[in-house]
Amino acid sequence: MTPTTVLTIAGSDSGGGAGIQADLKVFAALGAYGTSVLTAVTAQNTRGVDAVLPLPPRTVTEQLDSVLADFAVRAVKTGMLGTPAVADAVAEAAKAGRLPHLVVDPVLVATSGHRLGVVAAVERLLPYAQVATPNCAEAAALTGHPVTTVGEMVEAAQALTAGGPKFVVVTGGDVDADGESVDVLAGGGTTTLLRAPRVDTRHSHGTGCSFSAAIAVRLAAGDPVPVAVATAKEYVTRALTGARGWELGAGRGPLDHFGWSR
After folding, report:
1. What are phi and psi of 230, to 5 degrees?
2. Quick check: 176 pLDDT over 80?
3. Bridge partner residues of 193 (DSSP)
4. Residue 96: which residues within 8 A CB-CB, separation 6 or more?
5. φ and ψ of 17, to 5 deg
6. What pLDDT is attached to residue 187?
């Protein structure tokens, strides 16, 4: 049986825990065939990002044209875009209807604090997103308001749906919610709180990339957005749990994408 094809448009993580590398691992783990368009090359590991080299918009467009000319892509996720010019190139493809079931992970700042994108770049793409998945810091940057509590997450998710995305998930991995990890899904006239036990681990590098990639796989398979988001959250929770005892790198290590620790 031919696998479903999913596309990631993102930056490279030389440490393999986030970005293109994490996305392709998630696609494979969940049974999809992964294709990729590289937007930037980074020098990074579990301790942080040391350098970023954005690719020219033309190079991004050429990759995108090659993939879409040959593969029946069923869903697309974006991660690090790097520059407004690259975002414009991707937005043009989305506007033309070439990026189905678009999931936008608005990568703005790495967990190390290194800036990986700019708000203007993300804003160019949001109107075409079926789902956007900002974390609290990204939601705050996009709305201009603090997002530090579950209540503020709800407000941010609802506000961002007014900017174009059909659905917005504000992920709350860094918000203290009485031992739970709470994400807020807004869209379709409803707002839902998704809860899971908080996983006590330092290995959380690439959590946002993996979450959005998993949503894209499930959308490609035909799941409605609320089901795709809930399934993705379950997957990430398992991946976080599996990597708790790993010793990969000296900083924030990667997730157990393939369930090796079961």
Report:
1. -65, -40
2. no
3. 184
4. none
5. -90, -20
6. 96
